[in-house]
Amino acid sequence: MSTVDPAIVRRQELIDQFRQPQRPSGLFWVLVSIVAALWGLFAYSVAHVGQYPVGDGYVAPLAYAADATPPMFWGIFVGAFGAFILGFLLSFALAELYGMAATTWGGFAVTQVAWALGLWRGAADAWLPPVPLGASLAAPSPPSAQWDRLTWLGWHSQYWLPLLLVATALVCAMLARRAYRKRLRYFQRLRRIVGEGTRTAGVVTETHDTGVEILNQPRIRYVVKFSDHQGVERWVTKTGQFDAMQLPRAGDAAVVWFYPEHAGDESRIAVALGAVDDELLAAALAKT
Fold first, then answer.
1. Which of 65, 115, 166, 256 has CB atoms 3.0–4.6 Å from 202's, for a disulfide?
2. Torsion angles phi and psi, residue 198, rounded to 5
3. Among 4, 17, 5, 6, which residue's Cα sits nearest to residue 281?
4. What is the pLDDT of residue 6?
5. Residue 238's beta-bridge partner residues?
């Protein structure tokens, strides 16, 4: 139970985010570290379990007991389930801070680095070194078999697979940074339009469901009609995510900001739905 109206709290959060983008807290980085550690545990355990089928290709059959249970088998389930569950929480936090696109690519980067470290360390700890051709591990073991291409790739995967994962992670990190910078430019442009543009009233004339839903929020394309500084009627089309209980409808009021000298340029028009009297709140709800 709270003594503060939740609507007032949400309103202030929107205004604060519009004025200054949120910054990650210490708790956020702790959550990132835990998720990365869980994925690392998963990959480490996969490498431990993989010593048995990989070893069959290049060591004598008696090198591993037939009924041996991989000691890290539990880590596959603990790591994967823990990372998935906490990963959902992390995704919500990342989306609020950096946007959905940056969250997706950034999450991939963190996961792949954790996999790379886990696989490399797990193979280093668990995998047997290659046995010289014709040598015996111990009597009465038969001689080790010659390597084929798949066996060679399998044993050396402890090196090339982590390197491949790290290279892919770097690409994902670059894409995440690019997406985040694009989001920053979007909000900078929005703040500039709201601060410098002319404000006028508008009305929603059409809405269309795009068929896309992100974090349980439908993505809606809508058209807003407004009159510019010369009294010319104009229509601008925008797309945004909305709460399923607060979807825009034809006839809804809107607030529009535009540059009189660029009244026909949709990229320089900002729109907020609803008859919002609070200038800061309207700005926080606006979309370009």
1. 256
2. -90, 135
3. 17
4. 60
5. 222
